[in-house]
What we know:
Blueprint: E1 6-10, H1 18-26, E2 31-38, E3 45-53, H2 56-66, E4 70-71, E5 74-75, E6 77-80, H3 83-86
Antiparallel strand pairs: 1-3, 1-6, 2-3, 4-5
Amino acid sequence: EEKSRVxxxxxxxxxxxxxxxxxxxxxxxxxxxxxxxxxxxxGNSKGYGFVEFADGDTAAVAAGTxxxxxxxxxxxxxxxxxxxxARHPKLFAHSDK
Length: 97
């Protein structure tokens, strides 16, 4: 049975950028893709993003560990993304990998 390798992260604090997120979630395993959703007009974070790992087990551990984690005064909301969303071709279309 295929497992989703993508996690959704909500309530990302302002000032927490992609390179920090890669380092932060990279402690769980290989990060193959990453994106923080940003406003097209301002470039500011919309407060949520996605991280793709090399395997589904890593994604599950990362989501379970980081859900409700307090980061810069904000409590993260983290869960494994459903497979249909994880497979969406545009999910990481504008990411910096």
